[in-house]
Write a structure and sequence with these properties.
Blueprint lengths: L2 H19 L16 H6 L6 H19 L4 H21 L1 H4 L10 H24 L5 H26 L5
Helix pairs in contact: 1-3, 3-4, 4-6, 6-7
Amino acid sequence: MNNSLMVNIARFILLVFLQVLILNNINFAGYINPYLYVLFILLFPFTGNQSLFLFLSFLLGMSIDLFEDSGGINAAACLVVAFIRPHLLRFSFGISYDHQNIRLSATPFGAKFSYVVLMVVIHHFILFSLEMFSLSHIILILKKTLFSSIFTIVLVFLSLSLFSRKYR
């Protein structure tokens, strides 16, 4: 097995257990909860097999759903953001994505920030919309999306800065 595959397997397992055992128990103000497991979708190799990526994203969401007993809402949110990721990459990184020469650790902060924010906000909006499943709760959906997204984005950037390899 190659090194990239081992890293992705370890990242998948670590993020599922971190989410289920620690992060799901954090609940600020009754509705602010970080969802760091989206880091797997953010960091999956851009040149990887798209079908495998969609399957792994679905499996990631289903793993979280099995532990949370949440009926597939995490799987749906993960699958949607995995499906639209190429469009968000093209929007955030432009021509670099078209030429397949993106290295997330070496990209400008603005492009990286827009990519992470868009992925996290879309994931959270879908997740909370499916959780509430009612337009009468739109204010609560938006509030949960905003504050949980901020918390998740901060954790994503902390994780990226702590665990990124420095390229020279």
